[in-house]
Specification:
Belongs to the TMEM45 family. InterPro entries: DUF716. This protein is an all-alpha fold. It has 2 domains: 96 residues; 100 residues.
Length: 274
């Protein structure tokens, strides 16, 4: 966002940097989603001794492992979202940003629906911790939905990044609260107030994280942007389109202006008039 007015930062210069340009085009976020979602899917499938059985053999049959099936659905959606990112950035001829945003938004919609029915244990601590997570996911769903129509809004992107940080950090902390507390003893119902305190600490820490990233980016941009603008502006204009058409049009316009100036009759001097 800081370098939005300088096209040199949009993509690396094409000359003498073929390897770096190829690496730049790789959808790292999409591949990370695919690898993470696939590993978590395999873990859910093979972590159970009986396997992922949908229904037992009793009469009448009952559905088995409801939470594990919801986890499996979440991780499969994460993998599919990564596949959409890779397809849009590396397979299609032209990148479709709307498809990427729509896929992520749909995944958050499904995640919210699964979380609303995810808690089955009658524990106030587990219910409250999941309620805070549902609040973050709900706000994130609203922001992603609004971003489908206002994709270039800096405020929406900032709030989206903050909510993604909140969802990730609080989800990891939830795992320690519910499954393996630091003290080794499970939380009691009267410890709910500390869950709220920890959640507020997550808000402060993630906000400071964003401020730190912005501060480092701003200082780097203001220190190195003048030299990079002077050395890379022409290459960036050429690289802005795949065929360099925009840069060629600029050159043609400059040549045409020079030709027009040469064809104009020059002002005659007094000696010529005499």
């Amino acid at each position: 966002m800081l370098a939005n007015d300088s096209p040199v930062y949009l993509s690396p210069p094409p000359k003498n940097q073929k390897r770096s340009s190829k690496v730049w085009k790789i959808a790292f976020g999409g591949w990370l989603k695919i690898v993470t979602g696939s590993l978590l899917t395999l873990y859910v499938v093979f972590c159970l001794d009986d396997g992922m059985v949908l229904m037992n053999k009793e009469t009448p049959p009952r559905f088995m492992y409801p939470q594990e099936w919801q986890h499996l659905t979440m991780f499969i959606l994460l993998t599919l979202d990564g596949c959409v990112d890779v397809m849009s950035k590396n397979v299609l001829r032209q990148r479709c940003v709307a498809l990427e945003r729509g896929s992520t938004t749909l995944g958050i919609y499904v995640l919210l629906l699964l979380l609303l029915s995810h808690v089955q244990v009658p524990s106030k601590v587990e219910l409250y911790v999941h309620s805070l997570l549902i609040l973050v996911v709900f706000l994130l769903m609203l922001v992603l939905t609004a971003e489908l129509w206002a994709a270039r809004s800096f405020r929406l992107q900032l709030i989206k990044n903050f909510l993604f940080l909140m969802m990730g950090s609080w989800l990891m902390h939830t795992g320690f609260i519910l499954y393996r507390p630091v003290s080794g003893y499970p939380w009691k119902d009267e410890d709910i107030m500390f869950a709220t305190t920890f959640f507020c600490w997550h808000v402060i820490i993630n906000a400071l994280c964003l401020v730190g990233v912005y501060g480092l980016s701003s200082s780097w941009y203001h220190c190195y942007s003048p030299s990079l603008r002077l050395t890379g502006s022409k290459e960036a204009l050429y690289h802005e389109s795949s065929s360099g058409t925009f840069y060629r049009l600029l050159q043609d316009a400059e040549r045409q202006d020079k030709d027009d100036q040469s064809l104009l009759p020059s002002k005659s001097s007094p000696t010529d008039r005499a």
